User: Fold these one by one.
Assistant:
Number 1:
Amino acid sequence: MTYGFLAPSYDALTHDVDYEGVLDYLERQFRRARCPVRTVLDLACGTGSLTWLLARRGYETIGVDLSAEMLAQARDKQPPGVAVAPLFLQQSMDKLDLYGTVDACVCCLDSVNYVTRPALLERAFCRVRTFLTPGGVFLFDVRTPEALAAMDGQVFLDETEDAYCVWRGEFSQKRRVCTYSMDIFRREGQTWRRGSEEHREYAYTLDELTDMLRRAGFAQISCYSGRSRRRPRPGDDRVWFFARKEGRYDG
């Protein structure tokens, strides 16, 4: 998987993502957990849209992503109202290595599904726990197996004035992987340039993710249907997980 060709057009093609709504939900979870969050790790931050929003709301933020091209887009952003710019680091989730601890880690837009090897995802959960303060919280969302299976055979089109993307979904029941094949056309001056990418997402069950979090040492593990407080139900498209590192926050 790569974002080499998609990165410059990613924000335009995903303009409808409700980052403000996602952050509102995260902050409600922070308050319900009575967690005094000051520092936040945005894991798999992509082009940094959420990272910069966190910074604008006064959090000290770190954005981590594996893609150098996506991080380049993130670093180029300079939105108004940000007192302290985020720190951006190029790292794999399973090799996360920070300079200190954070009060919260968030991982959004089904980035967890993009880790297609369960052993590496469990290792990533362990690394997150390592760099959380005692009592710190970990919040992430996933696409459910039902949602990924429904992508099989689907064709989607995203279009802007300067970019055109056709992507096709193919789900393998045996491998439990949904593969997105993308053809991207990007305007460069008076010409159009074509590129292709292939992205994959793994269909983790809620029980599997809960067990991974427990083995990684997390406590108070809960999951919710969408951005709600109700328990997941069959047929849900997206589920949010909440987990806390054991211990008491002393900050």
Note: The mean pLDDT is 94.
Number 2:
Amino acid sequence: MVGLDINHSLLDYARRRSPRLTLVQADVRNLPYVAEAFDGLWAAASLIHLPKISVHASFRRLAKLTKPGGLFAATLIHGRHSNTLRNGWIPGRFISRWHKQELATALGRAGWQIIELKIVFNQERKGRWLNLLVRRPILKTELRDTVHIDY
């Protein structure tokens, strides 16, 4: 398991809470890992700070980092207008918002197979969020390397 964040202060906080966890300072847009390095990925409200074009590219890169059959879970903000917040939750931060079908299309184009994509209301962060769970499909060419035993 690896914890990753671009923010050094958040990594320091994580290090105090979980001293044995491997932590890496990196940007999700440029991750220092090779293809198929992970069985699963989780992005909890981290992609919301990227413009949609960067999220589209990140979905593709994350699919390449995940082994065939691997999972990716994430939370994004539901809505129409992406913008920089002027007040409220985190003033001055950019927030991208997604509609369910728009997100489903982006995930499909990036090579993910949707297991679950639902709108939820979050009391902690306020508002409507999209929770997603997707799988990187196993391609037929990848199946030929598996062993089948018939009895």
Note: Residues 1-32 form one domain.
Number 3:
Amino acid sequence: MPRLRENDMKILICSDGSEQADAAISFGGLIAKACHAETTILGIAEKPEEEDSVFDALKRGRDLLRERGVAAELITKSGNPIEEIVRRAEETSYDLVVIGAVRKGTRGSFLMSAKAYKIIKAVSPPVLVVIGSRLSLKRILICSGGEKYIDSAVSFAGRLAAEAEATITLLHVMVDPPQVFSDLLKMEEDVNLLLHSGLDLGQNLRREKEELDEMGVESQVKLRHGLVLSEVFKEIRQGDYDLVVTGSSPDRGNLRAYILGNITREIVNRAECPVLVVRSEESPASIGQSLKGFFSQVFSKSE
């Protein structure tokens, strides 16, 4: 499970000299300041003619962080950005990798830069994808599947929230059950009832909230019903969150790669605010498996 070290958190902020990379330095700096982190800004020029502009961007970033009381080491490299970021992340044990990302199209899986996806999948630490420009870190949304695979994300986000004095909303979206299960729907609408039920979903959500409580983080559990992505983005828009947190699972066929599930991919694709992707060593259950387990518990209690 990724953990923030108590006194020596290390952040790697990556820059290619672009405007969005500047936004990544700025938002990453908010976290660096809150966590008193040891910070490195890695600038990568793909072409020789880009070296001066990348170095100028690094100096701007260093000056910005210095104004916030954050000292940053500057490192410049030339070559393939993905390879250089992965190599640096392997050479030094970072707690967080920060990248900027821009949309390259208007539809489908090509909305987000392919480089961003490759970095998220290739490096081991949590990856913060800075989309847009947020000026504060006060409201965090964790997209919880109500399973243990999200525990790493809850723990990591909770530690960030504790340092930044931010609040957290734990969001779980339940696919609407058939009409015959309307009683289940009513129960799910009552958060307190669900959290104190014997259902795995309720127990997992309660455990997540209790962990945040122990960290001193103000948090709430929110339930929605319907299509998962639709409800997630409704919550993001209505809640005006500074950061959205989601998870990824390891690709069992490749020790160095992580799988971005459809939900995580679409959140990264379509969110208008920074997204933090935290790795898990466990894989989430499919919707079919989740529903099967949910209904079997309910039926066993009614017998």
Note: The radius of gyration is 20 Å.
Number 4:
Amino acid sequence: MKQISISTFGTIKLNSFRPLCKNKFGLEAIRKYNFPPFIDGSCRREPDFQNLFPSITSLCRQRQFAPHLQENDIIVYITVGGQFSPYKKGHHLVAILQVEKVYKTHKLGESAYINIGLPIPSNCMVKDNLPYDFDKTTGNFKNKIQLNKYLSQTPQRKIKFGKTQISVWDNDYLKKSKSWECFVMTRPIYLNLKNPRLILRTDFDNIFGKLPNTRTPNNLSEKEFKELAKLIGIDINLGERKATAHN
């Protein structure tokens, strides 16, 4: 088992996201563009796992998550439950991130990535940082009827529809970024975007006594965090817990 030491840490959170492989539309994007299957599937990857320093914002959960994060906090990311064909049905443990820096605005976050020579993350809502094209996402279809209608269209109509959908999708994200402006840079402790460990219901029962709710991200105890890490072959040694305003 791999040994990892974390010298200083704050609050430990469990969060979930919808991966690109969650539906047929996203699977086609994976095939077409050779994307890792377990990245986020929206037009603004939230979180953006593909950066050397993954980023987190309020584009998904608004006030419920990112605004409460502070330096040294730890976030465990799992997928939402579901059938991710050809992957096994259930939750997958994709990442363990630790907060490196919290910026008050997306613009300050952009400057930080530029200063260290890294590309601007897709969830950074700044000028000229465009969203992913529609065919590089899981789509934001309201239901299967809308999806099937899209699939029946000509290539030209699909392109037109996709541009309209991205405009609506991205404008919604822009409004959220203005209401909750913080931008969080993290560093990965663990990251597996290709074949992450499936977490069984028995695993959740053994660790939590139930299936945890991640719609509003929960705090994890040190013991729960260590037990989750052991599922992916990591023995975590935690050092000093840093007192924070939200503890």
Note: Strands lie at 2-9, 12-17, 55-56, 74-79, 91-103, 183-191, 197-199, 218-219, 234-241.
